[in-house]
Design goal:
Length: about 120
């Protein structure tokens, strides 16, 4: 048993995601980001965790960075999920294709506004 939730690309892309938690990482040694005026400003980094709204066993998390320009960006190399994408025959597609599909699913939701809203409350 490997604990993956196996989904087709269509099922993953149609799965509504529900926000669970977002937080700012510790600022120890915060990296610098380029601001609008070409000045270097400390970046704010954090993480967010989501679940499938209709399939709560689906878990997706990633790290994000709030840049000096005020843009919230996804760290594509930080995707954490228990989803495994499968093809039409039910064969696992592998981690790379799964992560690419998860990134497409994330892009379909307004995650930046949700994360910023959650950070304002905490």
């Amino acid at each position: 048993m490997d604990y993956y939730v196996r989904l087709s690309a269509a099922a993953l892309l149609s799965l509504p995601l529900a926000h669970v938690e977002s937080a700012v990482d510790s600022d120890d040694g915060a990296p610098l980001c380029q601001g609008e005026s070409a000045s270097l400003l400390p970046c704010i980094r954090g993480y967010t965790e989501w679940v499938g709204l209709t399939q709560s066993q689906v878990s997706i998390g990633w790290d994000w960075t709030l840049t000096g320009a005020g843009e919230l960006t996804l760290d594509r190399h930080s995707i954490r999920t228990n989803v495994m994408l499968v093809d039409e025959q039910g064969t696992d597609c592998g981690q790379q294709l799964t992560v690419e599909a998860v990134i497409r699913a994330i892009a379909r939701c307004d995650w930046q506004a949700v994360v910023l809203g959650a950070l304002r409350v905490t």
